[in-house]
Amino acid sequence: MTACDDLHVCEDGPRDAPALLLLHGSASSTRSWDPLVPLLTGTHRVIRVDLLGHGRSAKPAGPGYAVPDQARRAGAVLDRLGVGQALVVGHSSGGVVATALAEERPDLVSALALINTGPCLDAFLAPRAAPSGPTQWPPSDEQLRGFAATAVSRAGYRIPEELLDDVRLMTPHSFAATTAATRAYLEERTLPDRLAVLGKPLLVVFGADDRRWRSSSALAYRAVPGARIELLAGLGHSPLLEDPPRTAAPLLPFAALHAARRPV
Questions:
Q1: What's the confidence (pLDDT) of residue 262?
Q2: CB-based contacts of 96: which residues, under 8 Å, 6+ apart?
Q3: How far is CA 87 from the centre of its chain?
Q4: Do 24 and 238 contact (CB within 8 A), yes or no?
Q5: Are the beta carbons of 2 and 81 closer than 8 angstroms?
Q6: What is the pLDDT of residue 261?
Q7: Residue 227, pLDDT score
Q8: What is the pTM of this model?
Q9: How many CB atoms within 10 Å of residue 2?
Q10: In what order do the strands lie in the sheet with 8-12?
Q11: Residue 26 CA: distances (Å) to CA of 1, 166, 181
């Protein structure tokens, strides 16, 4: 089994189009991108990965969940698919993995787009309800719904049941190890500090009513030369679910400028 054979990968759109790599957040999966993907495939090859411990990917016990390890596996997926370069889009902690991929494999990353990715731990707003710890796994339906409520802000919107199923499918170890890995990476160095030295074009999209990360913290990315920051009023932590067209609106022109075209 190779470094990427244990990951579930989805591909959509023309194979010869500029590539977008979409990385989901913690306790999520490739399915979190389902509403957004049809808006991207007209002009892009869209690649999605279930990170280790999530969705339909393997959930091993032991090490391997560190953010740089997750990034290296994502890079191996692009290598296996013959993608020389991609614009990498990360949602929430997926943006942390996207940043690590740009650090680990700058050759593979043409640009970065971060969606509701907190720049540092000081920006985190502890959810009032979250899945219980490993000794009480899996979380109850009530706990899951409470946790899901912090992921959105649009009135009347409910997280799709299949995304809650993805949380249920996680193991206590994969959930705890993933959370700890993100914290450790942010404790070591903030994302704006990391990105400022990479020289990659950066788009930051943030739902202005995020209940998990202070939306005002998006301004910290101004430390990255040339960064573009878009706040989406009335949306929460998951604008890709709550309002896909408004999420795609800044992403598509950014991708048109910075997604690498496949050599002829």
A1: 57
A2: 67, 90, 117, 182, 185, 186, 191
A3: 13
A4: no
A5: no
A6: 67
A7: 98
A8: 0.94
A9: 9
A10: 8-12, 45-50, 19-23, 86-91, 109-115, 202-207, 228-232
A11: 24, 10, 10
Distance CA 80, CA 11 (A): 13
CA separation for the pair 161, 164 (Å, rounded): 5
| Token pair for 18 | 């500029």
The two structure tokens encoding residue 72: 């290296």
Domains of the chain: 8-126+174-258 (3.40.50.1820)
Strands 228-232, 19-23: pairing kind:
unpaired
How much is the pLDDT for 133?
A: 45
For residue 150, which amino acid is it? Answer: T
pLDDT score for 125: 92
pLDDT value for 139: 83
- Please give the torsion angle defined by the CA atoms of residues 105, 109, 115 and 118, in that order, rounded to the nearest 10 degrees: 30
Which residues in the chain come in under a pLDDT of 50? Answer: 1-3, 128-135, 263-264
Distance CA 3, CA 157 (A): 37
CB 231 within 8 A of CB 208: yes
The C-alpha angle 106, 112, 115, rounded to 5 degrees, equals: 145
Where does the chain have alpha helices with state H?
Answer: 67-81, 93-104, 141-149, 161-169, 172-188, 191-196, 239-242, 244-258
Q: State the pLDDT at residue 177.
A: 96
